Amino acid sequence: MSTEHWAAAALSLENSIVVMGGCAYSSLSSAEQYDTTLGQWSAFPSMNTACYGCAAVLDGKIIVVRGNDEKYYALSSQEEYGPNTGKWPTYLTCTPNVMAVQLQC
To answer: What are the pLDDT digits (tens) for 27-75?
Structure first.
């Protein structure tokens, strides 16, 4: 992995693991992909909005729901990655909470 990611979202996509967002001294929009067959990390298209503590769901597409900025504020944007387009269009907004709660394990 070329960039440290903590509080990032991760999911399985075909024969790889995609890690996106998170923090490394500030919120990240970057993403990386680990090929489980080759055992190598590679770049993955970055999200439009930097966030950490976000959730990711795969239903044919990667959906990043919510997340926080470096000031702990909840973000209103949500993004969807289209594997066929290779892009992260912002597709939905919702009213953010005034302050998000950060849970640490």
So the answer is: 888 899 999 999 999 999 998 888 877 777 767 778 887 677 777 777 7
Instruction: For residue 7, give every residue at least 6 positions away whose Cβ sits within 8 Å of its Cβ, in sequence order, or none.
Output: 21, 22, 23, 52, 53, 102
Q: Are 47 and 20 in contact (CB under 8 A)?
A: yes
CB hemisphere CA count around 47 (13 angstroms): 31
Report which of residues 37 and 97 the model is more confident about. 37
**How much is the pTM?**
0.76
Q: Which residues are registered as beta bridge partners of 80?
A: 63
Sole residue written with tokens 């067959």: 37
| Cβ contact 21:54 at 8 Å | yes
Are 68 and 23 in contact by the 8 Å Cβ rule? The answer is no
Longest dimension (CA), the chain: 43
Q: Are 69 and 76 in contact (CB under 8 A)?
A: no
